[in-house]
Structure formats: structure tokens, C-alpha cells
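Lab notebook, entry 256. We have the chain sequence and a SMILES string for zinc ion, and the next step in the workflow is to get a structural model of the bound complex before anyone spends time on docking refinements. Request logged below.

Task: model protein plus zinc ion, output C-alpha cells.
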Amino acid sequence: MRFCLLASGSKGNATYIEENGAAILIDNGLSLVQLQGRAKSAGLELSKLKAVFITHEHGDHVKGVGPLARKYSLKVYASPGTMMAANGTLGRVDYEPIASGETVVAGSLKVSSFSSSHDATEPLIYVVKGPGASLGVAMDLGVVTHLIRQQFLNLTAAVIEFNHDLGMLINGPYHYVLKQRVRSRVGHLSNEDASVFLTEILHQGLKHVVLGHISETNNLPELALQAAREALAKARRGSPSLCAASQWEPTPVFQL
Ligand SMILES: [Zn+2]
Ligand SMILES: [Zn+2]
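Result returned:
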């Protein structure tokens, strides 16, 4: 299995996952042209895509799904609540409902979905398994629930939201109401929350951890990486590579 975050952050998200010549995308908040450009620069082929899995209806996750799905004739998986909320944005797509706890087979990949805690209608996060490797993608969640923690325990790789530095958020330019929303149980994970989660799921088999959805207003990649490094040093139960994903360019392609 190999994967790459083609974009990550409040201006657009797209995670590409490939196994044995067939690929899926989790979310697409980029235009078709942007996504094609990013895939090309990462050495990936969008023609290998079979399906798009949507986490929730916020624009940074669904804006580009419709054009992409129509261009490559992709199936679109999302919860019924997400689909209803995103209907105006998506246009006509080949939609398949997916519920929390359900697993869908796409080529050699098994994609399982689990409810998350975020201010959207029926948000999901996804854990993807292939022969001998697994990847969990946990972004846009206000709190790590028991269900999500359980599902992330034995992964080969994880994408974890390191959204904000609490000090930067509190002292930053956001309006009070928005600050409260980001910090709430249906908002986003802070560097501190994410580090605790990382410690909980750390084991010797965890090879790569990507820090995602890093706020450009309330965080710095270096602060997120520092928090993750300190968590790893304290826990001492594994030494995965760390990478801070960017809004503007793809991460390296990680081979699992
Ligand atoms: Zn988002
Ligand atoms: Zn969101």
C-alpha cells in the first residue's frame, strides 16, 4: 500500500491511497485542475482511482468531489447525512451510502468507516486496510472517542489532525465564538490532544505518522512536529517517521 496527502488544511483536503494498481481518495477539496497537478507532481495517477470516500460536508472536504467523480466515473461513498447536507455542492454522482461500522471493498483495499465528533451532519473517519498494511485518517474531530482510539490501535500508518496550538488560538485573531467552536468537542484537535492520541496508538509496527489539517492561523508546522516528537520521546514505544502535511504541496508518497 502507498499513500500521499495531496492537500491538507482548511482550504482543501485530499488523501490518495493505492494498492496493487487500484486507488481511492478520501475527500477532495481541490479543483480538478489543482488535484491533477498535485497528483502529477507526486508521481501518482488519478486514472487508478475507483472511488471517493467523503468524511463530511464541509467545503474543504467536498468542493471538488463532483467534478472528479464525473471525470473518472468514480463511486462516491458518504453517510446519508453527509450526502443530504452536501447535495447542493456535489451535483449528480454515483452515490453509495456507508454507515459507521461498515466496510467497503475497493480493489484490494478494505475501507471501514466510523463516526466522529465534529460539527457536521453525520461525519465519518476512515481506516483503510490492504494486504499487510493499514492506514487510519483522523481529521476534523473535536475529541478522540473510544471507538476511534480502538480502531487506530494496530495501524501501520496514521494521519492525525494537529489543528491548532492552544496558545496561538486563544491569542489569535479568531472571533470568540469561532475560538470556542474550534476548541469544542465538535471542533478540531489541538497539538496537545493529538499528541495524547499519538501516544495511545503508538506501537513498534507504526511506521509513519502524518500531521494533518494544521491551521495556517493558529498553528505552525514546527510547533505541531515538536509536540509529536515530545510525545514519541516520552512514550518510547515506537519510532514512526513524522511529516507535517501542507496546504500547498503534496507530502512524500509513503510506502507501507
Ligand atoms: Zn476540514
Ligand atoms: Zn470540518
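Notes for the group: Residues 2-255 form a domain with the Metallo-beta-lactamase; Chain A fold (CATH 3.60.15.10). Worth checking against the assay data. The chain has one domain: 2-255.
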